[in-house]
Specification:
This protein is α/β, with parallel strands linked by helices. It folds into three domains: about 1-80 and about 160-195 and about 345-435, ATPase, nucleotide binding domain (Nucleotidyltransferase, domain 5, 2-Layer Sandwich); about 85-160, Dna Ligase, domain 1; about 235-340, Nucleotidyltransferase, domain 5 (2-Layer Sandwich). The chain has 13 helices and 17 strands. The protein has helices spanning about 50-65, 100-115, 160-175, 185-190, 235-245, 245-255, 285-310, 330-340, 360-375, 385-395, 410-415, 425-430, 430-435, and strands at about 5-10, 15-25, 25-35, 40, 45, 75-80, 85-95, 120-135, 150-160, 180-185, 200-205, 210-220, 220-230, 270, 280-285, 315-320, 340-345. The strands form five sheets. It has a five-stranded mixed beta sheet, sandwiched between helices. Strands 13-12-11-16-17 form a five-stranded mixed beta sheet, with helices on both faces. A three-stranded antiparallel beta sheet has the order 7-9-8. Helix 4 packs across helix 9 (about 360-375). The longest helix has 25 residues, at about 285-310. It is globular and about 85 Å long. It starts with a strand and ends with a helix.
C-alpha cells in the first residue's frame, strides 16, 4: 500500500513545532510530533536568525531521533502577517485529443502561481476552487475529461517577500530541506470549515503568543486573513504584574490553573514562590479575575475589527484555535462576549489533540489533497526503513518474551491504531460551487 507521509513545520513566537503524519485510505495518522521553545521570532518575523537557527537545529534532532532516520523534506508554514488573499484564474488551450491529467493540472497551477505580484511580495500557495472544461459545469477534478479549453478558478495567498525569504533562510540554515511552503492559517481555516453551520460565515481566530490571526471564509472561500498585535503573552504579563510573580511562574499558573469560568471554589490556594514583596500563595479567584479581563479585551478587539471592516457579525460563527484558546471555560466565555456560536477546533488524532496543532494538521491534509490533483506523492521519509527500525527495537526489547511479533501487523499499525481522522477537505471547499 502506498503511504503518503508529510512533515509540517510551524514556527511561532513562543514555540516551533513539527508534525509527521501518514495519510492512507483517507485517514490521517500521527507518526511523530515534537516542539521546542523558540527564540529570535517577533510578531511572525525573524528578528535574530542565529538564536532561531539553534532552536530549529534542536527540533530537528528531536524529531529525527524519534523517527530513527533523517527527515528528507518539510512543508513550511508561513505566518499570516500582512498576507493577502486574491482570486486568480488560469486557462489552457488543449488539443481535442488530449485527456486532462495531472500534468495539465500542474500547468494550470504553475500559470496561476507565476502571475505577477505587487512589489516586494511573493506567491505562497494556491487553493483551487473549481474547474470547467469548454465552459461546462464547475467541478472539483477534471481528470479524465476531454475538451478544447480547461479553466481553473483559485485563491492565491501573497505574503511579504522579506518575511518569506528570511524564514526559509533560517530553516535551511538549521538543516531542513523545504519541499513546499503555505500560509498556515489558510490550511487551518479550511480544516475548520466542517465545524460551521451551512450558510454561515466563518470567522477563524488563532490566538498566538504575540499575534491574533483573524481569517474569514464563506462557502469554502477564504476571503481575508489578518494578524493583529495582541496575543496570549499579554495575559501572562498581566498575571506577572498583578500577582507579583515572574513571567515563567505566571505562564505556569496560566497553563495549569487558568480559567475564565466562575469557579466553585475561588478561595482555593495555589502556592507560588515566596518573595519578600509578593505573595507566597494566590487564590484561583485572583488568577481568574486577571484572565477574564485580558481575554475579554482580546475578544472585543476581534469583534471591533470585524465591525470596522463592515463584516456582519450577526451571521458569523467563530472557530478558535491556538494554545491560548485551551484555557478552561473559554468557549462559554467567548460565546457570551461575542454573542454568537463559538467552537474550538482541535485535531482528532491521538497525541496532538490540542488547538496548537490544528494548522499543522490542516497543512498535511491540504498538501495531500493537492497531491491527488497534481499526481504528486509525498514520501518525506522512507516508511519501510522507519518500520524496520522500530520493529528491530521491539524485538531487542522483547527477546525474553515467548510471544512472537506478528509479521502481518507492523509497529506502525499498532502505533496508529484508532488515531485517524477522515480527510474530506476538498468536499468542503467545493460545496458552494457545486450547488
Amino acid at each position: 500500500m502506498k503511504n503518503n507521509i508529510y512533515a509540517c513545520l510551524e514556527i511561532g513566537s513562543s514555540e516551533a513545532r513539527i508534525l509527521v503524519c501518514n495519510i492512507r485510505e483517507d485517514k490521517v495518522y500521527t507518526i511523530s510530533q515534537q516542539s521546542v521553545e523558540t527564540e529570535g521570532m517577533e510578531n511572525g518575523y525573524v528578528a535574530q536568525v542565529n538564536l532561531l537557527v539553534q532552536k530549529l537545529k534542536a527540533l530537528k534532532v528531536h524529531v529525527e531521533s524519534d523517527l530513527n532516520q533523517k527527515l528528507q523534506t518539510v512543508i513550511l508554514s508561513v505566518p499570516s502577517v500582512e498576507v493577502k488573499i486574491e482570486d486568480v484564474e488560469s486557462e489552457l488551450i488543449l488539443d481535442e485529443t488530449d485527456v486532462i491529467g495531472p500534468e495539465i493540472i500542474k500547468r494550470l497551477f504553475r500559470q496561476a502561481m507565476t502571475r505577477p505580484t505587487p512589489a516586494e511580495t511573493v506567491s505562497v500557495n494556491l487553493i483551487p476552487r473549481a474547474f470547467s472544461v469548454d465552459g461546462g459545469p464547475l467541478n472539483n477534478d477534471p481528470t479524465g475529461q476531454k475538451g478544447s479549453v480547461v479553466k481553473m478558478e483559485a485563491l492565491r495567498a501573497i505574503a511579504p517577500a522579506m518575511l518569506v525569504y528570511n524564514l526559509i533562510n533560517a530553516v535551511e540554515l538549521a538543516g531542513f530541506r523545504i519541499s513546499d511552503i503555505m500560509v498556515g492559517s489558510t490550511a487551518e481555516v479550511l480544516y475548520g470549515l466542517g465545524a460551521v453551520e451551512k450558510g454561515k460565515q466563518l470567522c477563524h481566530v488563532n490566538i498566538g503568543k504575540s499575534t491574533t490571526t483573524i481569517s474569514l471564509a464563506h462557502g469554502g472561500k477564504l476571503s481575508s486573513t489578518r494578524a493583529l498585535s495582541i496575543g496570549g503573552q499579554e495575559a501572562t504579563v498581566d498575571i506577572s504584574e498583578a500577582l507579583q510573580v515572574d513571567e515563567k511562574t505566571a505562564s505556569l499558573l496560566k497553563h495549569h490553573f487558568g480559567s475564565v469560568l466562575n469557579q466553585n471554589n475561588p478561595q482555593e490556594f495555589i502556592h507560588v514562590n515566596e518573595s519578600d514583596s509578593g505573595f507566597s500563595y494566590i487564590t484561583r479567584g485572583m488568577l481568574e479575575n486577571v484572565l477574564v479581563g485580558r481575554y475579554e479585551m482580546i475578544l472585543k478587539v476581534v469583534k471591533q475589527y470585524l465591525n470596522e471592516n463592515s463584516f456582519k457579525t450577526d451571521n458569523i460563527e467563530y472557530v478558535f484555535t491556538g494554545g491560548a484558546s485551551e484555557v478552561e471555560g473559554f468557549v462559554e466565555f467567548a460565546q457570551k462576549i461575542l454573542e454568537a456560536k463559538v467552537s474550538r477546533q482541535r485535531p482528532g488524532m491521538l497525541g496532538i489533540r490540542h488547538g496548537k496543532f490544528t494548522a499543522l494538521t490542516g497543512m498535511a491534509i491540504l498538501s495531500h489533497e493537492l497531491a491527488l490533483l497534481t499526481g504528486q506523492k509525498s514520501q518525506i521519509i522512507d516508511f519501510s526503513q522507519y518500520t524496520r527500525a522500530k520493529n528491530q527495537g521491539m524485538q531487542q526489547a522483547g527477546q525474553n518474551s515467548e510471544r512472537p511479533i506478528s509479521a502481518e501487523r507492523s509497529f506502525m499499525d499498532h502505533k496508529l491504531e484508532n488515531s485517524g481522522v477522515l480527510v474530506r477537505l476538498f468536499d468542503m471547499i467545493f460545496e458552494e460551487k457545486a450547488e
